[in-house]
Structures are given as structure tokens and as C-alpha cells.
Write a structure and sequence with these properties.
Layout: H1 2-19, E1 36-37, E2 40-41, E3 56-74, E4 80-101, E5 105-118, H2 121-127, E6 129-145, E7 149-165, H3 167-175, E8 186-203, E9 208-220, E10 228-241, H4 242-246, E11 250-260, E12 270-278, E13 284-296, E14 303-316
Antiparallel strand pairs: 1-2, 3-4, 3-14, 4-5, 5-6, 6-7, 7-8, 8-9, 9-10, 10-11, 11-12, 12-13, 13-14
Length: about 325
Amino acid sequence: MKTIKVLLLFCMLALVSAGTGWANEEADLSRGAERIIGGHAFMPSQYVTDPFVGSAFTNHVGAAQALSVTKEFHNLAGDPLFTLEGNVVFAALGMRYQQHLGKYWAIGLGGSALVRSGTNALSFINDGANVTTDNYAWVKRRVHRGEKSQLTVGLNWKYSSFTLFTPREFAEHIVDGGGLADAPLVSTGKVWSLQADVLWAYAFNPTFGLRANGNFGVVEDYFESGVLHGKNRISVIGEVDFKSSYDIPIGLSLGTFVGFPSSMTGSGLNGYLFGLWYTGREEFSIGLETGLLEIPTDNSGTTIDGLFGVLNIKYFF
């Protein structure tokens, strides 16, 4: 609880100081005009939040595949008996809505669902399957907008619930002499997280832009209710828009993010991002983002590598 109080105090001070801060330019927020800085129209990303406070609706659909998932089984003496191998697939769907409040503030709500399952009998037995639903709420405050940059701070709250199907644990329980009635075939849980966000964008010129994020907060332990851990992420993404230089409405983005502590399920996601975007309309953006992910599977530091693809559509009002 002490950690939460310190975090909330920090965030409140940041937002209050923002209220008396540097908001030095009355940017037009309508129909995507705010995301144009120095002539460059910034593109969205599924993993790197933008600093803009204008009204917008976003939806996404995506899929991922984790490769070469392995699990070793041991006897009572700790000697390896055999290893199960297989692949795991993920499918995701979500939407978010943000509403500006005046020139400098915005609030937002969103939700998403993620389904994970093994692709064959071995990987299903080994890694099971699960369904996770996430609900989001956030507030942003633009504290500075200059000729080539924008800085925004905010708070982001997420509440997740999950249902996990565990056929391997069920089988191990029965083999070890456990009863059928209390065999752990399905487990459920709920966790929440709270983060303070620092969001920045910089336009070198109409063609090139750069964004960077710092997200710092806490997340409840996935396996032990009421236990909190740090949840932090540093992200950077660069982008190029060929529309201004070559009159081709195509944009490319390349970025990376690092989550830490890296060993924790709720915070340790890392990845490399590549995006291909349509940039022909100011009030509308659509694109495909893909890349590599390193996904923590538990709190022991064990991870699996995966490939993902997300179709992202964003409307500005």
C-alpha cells in the first residue's frame, strides 16, 4: 500500500504541475490535426502510446505465434524423464475511445480480449489454453507543445481477468494420487495495474518523426493476490512518411520496447516493432504492425519467443 500511495502522490504532483506548466500553443485537436507536428503526421502503435489528447476511436485485431515451446518433466529425484514440445498461438481483439476535455486534457476507456492455445495435442497438454480480458481507463494532460515536439503526462489503470485451462497440471495431479474432484483443470484470477506515463513526440521534418515513452507503476502478482510488483516500460519508435517527400501515402515505423522487471509475468514483455501505414488521410489511419516478442511465462524468468501481427485502425474526431 505504501508503494501505491507514493505512486499516486507522484502522479498527482505531476498532473498538478502540468496544470501550471508550459502549454504554450493552442493546437487544433479536431480530426487528427493535433498529431501533425512540424508538418509530420505521427502514426499510431499498439505498443507505444502517443502523446495526443484529441478525440479518437481505435480498434485492432491481431494474432501471434510462439515457437518451440518446451517443458521438461522430472522424477522425484530431479532427473529429467522427457520433454514436451509444441507451438502456441494467440488471437486478440480490442477497441479504445478517447475524449478530449478542453485543449489540454483527455480521458479514455477501452477493452480487449486475448485467447491463447496450443496448436497440437502436445503443446495443449504442455501449455494449456487461456482467455484474458482487459479493461483500461486513462487520463492525459498535455504539458508542452512546441513547433516540433509535444510532451504529455498521464495515468493509466488496467484491470484483467483470466481463465486458464491446465490439462498438464490436471494429469500430474491424478498421476500423483490426487482426487478427481479437486484436480486443477481450470483456474481463474484477476489482477490490476496502475502506471504513470510520460509520452513525447518529436518531428525532425515532415518526413521523419520520433516518439518515446516512459511508463512506471505497479501490477498485482498473477499468482498471489494482493502482492505488488513493479511494472515499468521504456519505448522508442521512429517513423518515416513518404507522402510529403514523394507524394506516396505510405509510412513506415520501427521501434522497440523493454519491460522490467523482466522476470515478472505482468511486466517483463519485450519486443521489436515494424509498421506499415496508410498516411493519405489526416482524420484516419490504418496499418499493420508486426515484429518479435519475448513473452514471460511465469515469475521464474522463463520466456518464449513469438511473432505477432496487428491490424490497427484509428479514427480522429
